[in-house]
Amino acid sequence: MADLLAQLEALAQSAREAIVAAADEKSLEELRVRFLGKKGEISQVLRAMGQLVAELRPRVGEVANRVRDEVEELLVEGRARLAARALEAELSGRPIDVTVPGRALLPRGHRHPITRSGEEIAAIFGRLGYEVASGPEIELDRYNFEALNMPADHPARDMQDTFYVEESTLREGVEPGTVLLRTHTSPVQIRSMLRLGKPPVRIICPGRVYRSDYDQTHSPMFHQVEGLCVDRGITFADLKGTLAAFARAYFGPRTRTRFRPSYFPFTEPSAEVDVSCTICGGKGRVPDGNGGTRRCGTCKESGWLEVLGSGMVHPRVLENGGIDPTRYTGFAFGMGVERLAMLRYGIDDLRLYFENDLRFLGQF
User: Fold this and answer.
1) What DSSP character marks residue 184?
2) CA-CA-CA-CA dihedral for 158, 161, 164, 168, to nearest 10
3) Distance from C-alpha of 285 to C-alpha of 302, rounded to nearest angstrom
4) How many C-beta atoms lie closer than 10 Å to residue 132's C-beta?
5) Average pLDDT over every residue of 345-356
6) Bridge partners of 204?
7) What percent of the chain has pLDDT over 90?
8) With contact defined as beta carbons under 8 Å apart, do 117 and 341 qualify?
9) In this structure, what are the phi and psi dihedrals at residue 227, rounded to the nearest 5 degrees?
10) DSSP label at residue 185
11) For residue 54, what are the CA distances in angstroms to 23, 60, 97, 154, 289?
12) DSSP readout, 97-151?
């Protein structure tokens, strides 16, 4: 017993000296582990108590508990001492002149106009009850063209000729077919209908798409948001009401819409959707600064801006999505995010989005 008691007293003295000499929090933590840890010095002494007779154990245990409590108290005092020392060093340092003007902060980053427009479009349709759906950008011809009523010899493919990757072979987990970069987000509509199994379907499909175009108004990579609504009794009137509500929410409460007959292989009937010009308010002319008016260059004096395509989903497309066209109807629409942002912010060249010119991006 005498040996254990001597070890405990020596341990306590060693802890006092080491903790007083500790220079930082890291050193204190190392000392805590050394003395109080599961494999620490106090634990080793307590394990040796098993060799003592029962009558002697209470005395050794009492001393061991006292030493442990003393070490814990020393550690608390050590942390308080280090905190006080740090505060004193801070207060005795160079004084702060609160009358000096503040330094200008570095410019804060912000979201790209395309990102901002895409998020706002998604938020508007979210309030209308639509959910966001996504799909692969590297797609199969089956979903990108054939399931959307565009077989291999369809002339509409010429307008969307894209970047073909390879012919995938039949192997485990991979469908065979021509692999390409998707030309629109419409394949997500097919995949969503097949995944959900039956209506109601109410989704929007935002994402990047690819076509071999590059000029002032086209880019080989751009962003689309497409929408799909399928249920019993869906009519063209529902389509018009939905897109009119979107136009007012995005362009302003006074925005008017008009629908012009058009053609898309995957919808029938189909329509192009125009909104009243955001610059001239649909009048076709703007003030010239001299009391008169001049031609509106944005809408080319027509008073209207083309913003998206739409229509009632073709029965064959519903069938390809696993939905019975005799029981359900639906509408679909698609819009280019860059196009809407150009109209919203008055941008006249689509290539500006991708040139990373801070003079341009800093305006948003």
Assistant:
1) S
2) -50
3) 9
4) 14
5) 78
6) 132, 227
7) 31
8) yes
9) -130, 155
10) S
11) 42, 11, 69, 96, 105
12) -TTSPPPPPPPPP---HHHHHHHHHHHHHHHTT-EE----SEEEHHHHTGGGT--
- Do 37 and 71 touch, CB atoms closer than 8 A? no
Domain assignments of the chain as residue spans, ordered by start: 2-91, 113-361
Q: Which fold has domain 113-361?
A: BirA Bifunctional Protein; domain 2 (3.30.930)
Residue 220's closest CA among 166, 160, 274? 160
pLDDT-wise least confident of 261-275, 281-295, 317-331: 281-295
DSSP 302: S
**Strands across the sheet with 164-168, in order?**
138-140, 177-181, 164-168
**Residue pLDDT, tens place only, 193-226:** 999 888 999 999 999 998 876 665 567 888 999 9
Six token digits for residue 53 = 């007779």
- Could you count the other beta carbons within 10 Å of the beta carbon of residue 315? 16
Cα 202–Cα 208–Cα 152 angle in degrees, nearest 5:
85
In 3D space, the residue among 78, 15, 19 whose CA is nearest the CA of residue 45 turns out to be 15
Rounded distance between C-alpha atoms, residue 205 and residue 334, angstroms: 9
Distance CA 77, CA 20 (A): 9
Residues 6+ apart with CB under 8 A from 323: 193, 198, 199, 201, 230, 330
281: left (phi over 0), alpha (psi -120 to 50) or beta: left
**Secondary structure letter of residue 328 according to DSSP:** -
- Helical segments of the chain, H only: 2-21, 25-36, 41-48, 57-91, 113-127, 141-144, 186-196, 236-251, 315-320, 337-345, 358-361
One-letter amino acid of 159: M
pTM of the predicted protein model: 0.64
- What are the structure tokens assigned to 163, written together? 């970047």
Q: 162: exposed, middle or buried (C-beta count within 10 Å: 0-12, 13-18, 19+)?
A: buried
Q: Which residue has the tokens 């500790």?
A: 22
Over residues 30-53, the pLDDT tens digits come to: 888 877 777 777 777 777 666 666
